[in-house]
Amino acid sequence: xxxxxxxxxxxxxxxxxxxxxxxxxxxxxxxxxxxxxxxxxxxxxxxxxxxxxxxxxxxxxxxxxxxxxxxxxxxxxxxxxxxxxxxxxxxxxxxxxxxxxxxxxxxxxxxxxxxxxxx
Length: 119
Description:
Layout: E1 3-7, E2 10-13, E3 18-25, E4 33-39, E5 46-51, E6 57-59, E7 67-75, E8 78-85, E9 94-102, E10 106-109, E11 113-118
Parallel strand pairs: 2-11
Antiparallel strand pairs: 1-3, 3-8, 4-5, 4-9, 5-6, 7-8, 9-10, 9-11
């Protein structure tokens, strides 16, 4: 059974830092991409950052230089992806979703964790 469990998030002030973590299990992680997306009120869900099984990272322009994504894939049964968010801005306020994509067209989403940044 595929499982994705998110943790982290919360209410912070502008300039603060937060760490989001996502633990996934139940799939073959070789070749799987893990990432974080976010959806602000009234906006479409967008990619924040992703990391391949080989460690290749992708960032949205709006977060590059402030956010860092990393992945722990030492355990074949479970992989964990972490998003370290520094210098948070009010425009980073959104619900953040973990996503794991593998195989030809397999994908699973976490339940979402809210991040609110006050000015």
